[in-house]
Amino acid sequence: MAGTPVEQIKEKLDIAEFLKGYLTVQPSGKNFKGLCPFHKEKSPSFMISPERQSWHCFGCGLGGDVFTFLMKYENLEFAEALKVLAEKAGVELRKVSPADYKFFGLLYDLNEAAKEFYKKELASSELAKNYLKSRGLKPETIEEFELGFAPNLPDSLNLYFINSGHSPEDIVRAGLAIKSDRGGQFDRFRGRIMFPIKNNLGKTVGFTGRILAEFDPGNVGKYVNSPETPIFNKSKLLYGFYKSKDFIREEKRVFLMEGQTDFLMSWQSGVKNVVASSGTALTPDHLQALKRLTDEIILTFDNDEAGLNAGERAIDLAESLDYNVKVVLFKDYKDAAEAAAKNPQDLIKALGEAKPATEFYFERYLPKTNADYGNRENLKGLRVVLAKIRAISSPVSKSSWLKELSRRTGVSERILTEETDKLVPQKSETQYASKTEEVHLADARKLSRYDMICERLISAALEKNNFELVERNLFRLTPPYKKIFELIKSGVRKSGDPNVDKLLNLILLRSETLGPKEVEDLEIHLAKEHLKERRQEISLKVKKAEANKNETELNSALEEFHNLNRLS
Questions:
Q1: Domain enclosing residue 496, as ranges
Q2: Same structural domain, 116 and 203
Q3: Is the distance from CB of 274 to CB of 253 less than 8 angstroms?
Q4: In DSSP terms, which residues pair with 116 in a beta bridge?
C-alpha cells in the first residue's frame, strides 16, 4: 500500500538510473534495453520500463522491480535490499517504519558497532597483533579488512551494548551474545581473532572468530561463525567478494580459497580476483553469485584426505553448473596462506599452473602407467573418473576428456562410453510401475505438464458430471483439450480426427474422483501454466517487434505483458 517504506523508496528511485549502475543500456523508445546479466546472450533482450518502474528479460523470463533486481544481482535477502535501497533513496527506516528497523535494520547497526569494538580491542592487544604478524598479515591488510579481537572475557561486548542502551534480546538476535541455561547472557566470541563478514555491498552482517591457542580450553571449535540471522546467511556469502568482484569481472576467472587467512594472504600477495567460503562448504548460491562475472573457477584446497574430499565435492558442484573448473594443489605447502607467507611468487606461480579438474582426477584415481583394467582396483578408479566425466555439462568437453582418457589408459572410446552408460541408472519397469497413473501416462505419451493438468481437470469434471468446473477455466485450456471438452459437453464421442479421438477415449476411460482441495490445487496449477504460456507468447511478440523495429507493436506488446503481470 502507498506510504510503506517500499513504496516510498520506489517513488524516490528511478529504476533506469539505478540499473545503469550495473548494466550498459541503450534507449529503446520510452524504454531502455541491454544484455541480461542473469543469462548469456548476444543480442539485448533485457528491457527496463521507467514508466512502470519495472524490468523484464524476454530471453530468460526473469523480471520485477528495483528490489527484485538488487536481490537477484547481489544475492541479497529482502531485508538487506530494503536497507540498501532505503539508504540510496534517503528514506530513514527508523522513522518511517520502526518495526522494519527493529526487525533487521538494528541488526546492521549492532554488527557494525561490534566490528568497531573488536577493532579497538585488537589495537590494545599485543597477543592478538603478534598472532596476526606470525601469520604474515601486514598492518595495512589488517586495517583494510577491519580485523579485530574479542577479549577473553565472558561479557565485554554484551556490557558495552547494554551500557549503550541496547536490550539484551536484540544483542542475542544479532548473533553477538548467547543466553545461558540459567538465564544469564554472555558473549558468543571470546579470546578470538575476529574476521568481519560483509555482504556483497560491503555491509557488516556477521563474523568468523578464530580462537587463539592461549585461550583454547580444548573443547571448543577453532573457528566459530555468527548464527543465521535475518541479515546473515553464510550459504550465500563469500568472504571478500564485495572487494574482489570487479577484479573477478576484469580477469574473467576467480580463485576460491578455503578460509579467510588464505584469502587475505592471497590478496596481500597481489592476487585480487579471489574469494573464500565463510565457515561452510561451497553452495550453489555461492556459484550463482560468481557466475555473473566469470565461467572459470580455480579451486584450492588442503593437500590432505579431508581437503581432497571437500575439493572433489566443490569440483562436482561447479562442473554441474557448467563452470570451467581448474585445481591448484600446493605440494610444498599446506595451503595458499602458507605459500604466500613463505614466498608470494610461489603462490602466483601455482595459481598460474592450475590444472583442469579432469586432469586432477586422472592423477588421483588412475595408475601412473598404463595398467590392466581387468584388475578390480584399477577398474574401480577408472569408473570414478568416468562418473566425473559423465557429470560434465558440456558435450564437447565430455567428448574431449573421453578421448584423453582413452589415450592415457589404452582403452578405446567405444568401450569407455559403454562403461559410462552402465554407470547411468536406467529406468526399469518397476520404477514406472511405482508411479501414479497420471505420471505414468505423461511419461509414456510425452505429455507436457500443461496438457496433463487439462486432461485431469476434464476427467474430474466428467466424473462429477459438473461441467461448470471446466467452463470457468475454458480460456486456460490448450486447443486440443478445448475441442475435446466441447465434444464431451455436446454428447459426441467421436470427432473423426484419430489423434483427438485417442485423447477423448483416454479421458473417458480414466475419469477420476477428486476432493475439493485437489480440484482447487489443480485450478491453481492450470492458471500458472496458462500464465507461463501467455508470457512466452508475448515475449515472442516483443522480440519480433524489436527485430522489425516496430515501435508501435513493441509498446503494445510491453503494455500487454505489463497487464498480464498485474493480473497474475
A1: 432-514
A2: yes
A3: no
A4: none
Strand duo 148-150 + 63-64: pairing: unpaired
Instruction: Answer yes or no: do 31 and 146 share one domain.
Output: no
pLDDT tens digits, one per residue of 269-304: 999 999 998 767 888 889 988 988 899 999 988 777
DSSP state of 103: I
Domain-terminating residue out of 202, 225, 248: 225
Do 300 and 384 belong to one domain? Answer: no
pTM of the model: 0.69
Confidence of residue 73 (pLDDT cuts 50, 70, 90): confident
Number of domains in the chain: 6
- Record the cell numbers describing residue 173, joined without a space: 538476535
The reply to whether 43 falls in a domain is: yes
Q: What 3-state class would DSSP assign to 178?
A: strand
Give the CA distances from residue 383 to residues 153, 293, 368, 400, 559, in Å, rounded to whole numbers and listed in that order: 54, 34, 16, 17, 55
Under 8 Å CB-to-CB from 367, ≥6 apart: which residues? 378, 381
Is residue 84 domain-resident? Answer: no
One DSSP character per residue, 223-286 reads EEEPPPBTTB-TTT-EETHHHHHHHHHHHT-EEEESSHHHHHHHHHTT--SEEEESSS---HHH
Question: Residues 205-238: pLDDT tens digits?
Answer: 999 999 999 999 988 889 999 998 888 888 889 9
Are 407 and 355 contained in the same domain? no
Structural contact between residues 118 and 137, judged by C-beta atoms closer than 8 angstroms: no
